Amino acid sequence: MEPTEAGTTATTRSVDAGLRETLRRLSVLAGSAPPFDPGRAPAEPLALFTEWLCHAIESGVAEPHAMTLSTVDETGRPWARVLICKDVTTDGGWHFAVSSISRRGRQLSTNPVAALTFYWPQLGRQIRVSGPVVRDPDDIAAADFLARPAGSREMALTRRQSEPYSDQAELDAALATARAELATAPDLVPAEWTSYAVVADTVEFWQSDTTRRHVRVQYQRADGGWTRTLLWP
Ligand SMILES: Cc1cc2nc3c(=O)[nH]c(=O)nc-3n(C[C@H](O)[C@H](O)[C@H](O)COP(=O)(O)O)c2cc1C
After folding, report:
1. Rounded to whole angstroms, what are the CA distances from 105 to 57, 77, 108, 116, 191?
2. Start and end of every Pyridoxamine 5'-phosphate oxidase N-terminal domain (predicted)?
3. Do residues 180 and 188 touch, judged by C-beta distance below 8 A?
4. pLDDT tens-digit map of 134-164
5. 65-86 tens-digit pLDDT
6. For the chain, how many structural domains are there in total?
């Protein structure tokens, strides 16, 4: 599809003659979860999130803590990528740790808001979280960094994430420098390693239904508590 003018696209040939039909034949929302009665949903979303997450873990959902983090750059353009959820807390919300000088770190400095999306296909469940983003205290970031595998710490210490490169030797050399740095200072934590929290003001729980009568419950912060609203599927 080629962009023509803002908001419109020109439809051209599919990349593969059969692709459209192949995509249409693929099953979707084949998973199932225990019945979800929104009338019995807890008064606040953290309890329901924890219940759903624990159920996903017990059900053997692969990487249930992987979530799509969406941020916005200085021009208003959205960017999204998958990250690991590190914790969920009653005061802070949903936590993740990244370098503040990476692309997403810079976007969070400019626009400290984000959306998170969890999707667990086997259960037909999606959870959407959004709200302002705050920085956690430095000791949380330090503990996160020190718990990371060596390779991950070495890569972070190159301080180059999301930058373009053309030479493998350049990457190898930066990693060797980082490895030497860590060998002399094993507890080193780069200043830019940052733990962030999405302090949700909106959380939506979505449960699929085979007849497409999906259930959607949206929680919104209001007056020190939360409102719960059913949304049309
Ligand atoms: C399952 C999965 C988990 C990931 N976990 C992380 C993570 O915890 N931290 C991270 O920095 N990148 C993680 N990544 C890589 C990011 O998706 C992405 O490559 C990187 O953050 C680039 O972001 P940016 O250029 O928009 O700043 C993960 C990718 C996948 C597919």
Report:
1. 29, 15, 5, 15, 13
2. 56-168
3. no
4. 999 999 999 999 999 999 999 999 998 888 8
5. 999 999 999 999 999 999 999 9
6. 1
Residue 105 CA, closest ligand 1 atom number: 27
Domain hosting 127: range is 30-148+191-230
Question: How many angstroms does the Cα of residue 104 sit away from the middle of ligand 1?
Answer: 10
Which are the contacts of 31, defined by CB distance < 8 A and separation ≥ 6? 120, 121, 122, 123, 124, 125, 208
Q: Is residue 3 part of a domain?
A: no
Residue 209, domain member (yes or no): yes
- 10 Cα: distance to centroid of ligand 1 (angstroms): 32
- What residue owns the CA closest to ligand 1's atom 5? 83
Say which CATH number the domain at 105 has.
2.30.110.10
Ligand 1 surroundings by CB, under 6 angstroms: 63, 66, 79, 81-84, 98, 102-104, 162
Task: Give the tens place of pLDDT for each residue, 7-28.
Answer: 666 666 777 779 999 999 999 8
10 is a domain residue: no
